[in-house]
TrEMBL record:
This is Uncharacterized protein. It comes from Symbiodinium microadriaticum (Dinoflagellate).
């Protein structure tokens, strides 16, 4: 079971900059905890892990639609190397020689329409117990108090049911996608030594 979870696990690196999702996550976490303290129980509501991941997906969808609504926004995305001339979102990989992210020619770019559909479906599917885990390595309030410039989240989808399998498949499409740069995150597989390497790469990229 542990090996299965590892195979399905993802790791989400979040950097703190002007585009970062971290402030929104801090706020969502604080709001959820305030409601928890006031309520007798939260059985009718969503768990914190689901609330936080929903915050990530909703914000990513919102920024995707906003930045692509103007020609200036599209031009900036093209200049950054996040989209191609057709407006499709590129996948990237780490180049050890140049020490930067470059286009991954082995993966087919995600069209804008498919990106919108993907995020919309994810947003609408995050309910119940589909998300087994989505938590930072440290409590968010501690990260906020310490003024950390980055955070690492571990993400696991439930092992049970077709809906969980569908959500997992959709999340896999975000791995190494330039689309996630819109909110300052990077999604990788969690898999032992590869996870450690991914963290080192993320730290190099985020420092830039």
């Amino acid at each position: 079971l542990a090996l299965i979870r590892q195979d399905r696990g993802l790791i989400v690196f979040v950097k703190q900059d002007q585009h970062s999702i971290l402030p929104a996550l801090y706020k969502a976490s604080a709001t959820w905890n305030e409601k928890k303290e006031k309520a007798a129980n939260l059985e009718a509501g969503l768990s914190l892990k689901t609330v936080l991941l929903s915050c990530v997906i909703r914000e990513l969808l919102s920024r995707l639609q906003t930045v692509t609504s103007t020609e200036d926004g599209k031009a900036k995305l093209l200049a950054a190397g996040w989209i191609n001339n057709e407006g499709h979102w590129l996948y990237q990989r780490w180049c050890a020689k140049t020490k930067r992210l470059i286009r991954d020619e082995d993966r087919t770019p995600l069209t804008h329409d498919n990106a919108v559909r993907l995020l919309t479906s994810l947003r609408d599917s995050l309910n119940g117990d589909i998300i087994h885990k989505f938590a930072a390595t440290q409590p968010l309030y501690k990260l906020e108090e310490a003024g950390h410039q980055s955070a690492t989240f571990f993400l696991e989808v439930s092992l049970r049911g077709k809906e969980s399998d569908l959500v997992h498949a959709m999340l896999l499409q975000l791995i190494n996608s330039s689309l996630t740069h819109l909110i300052g995150i990077s999604v990788k597989r969690e898999n032992g030594q590869r996870c450690k390497l991914a963290q080192q790469v993320a730290e190099l990229v985020f420092r830039g």
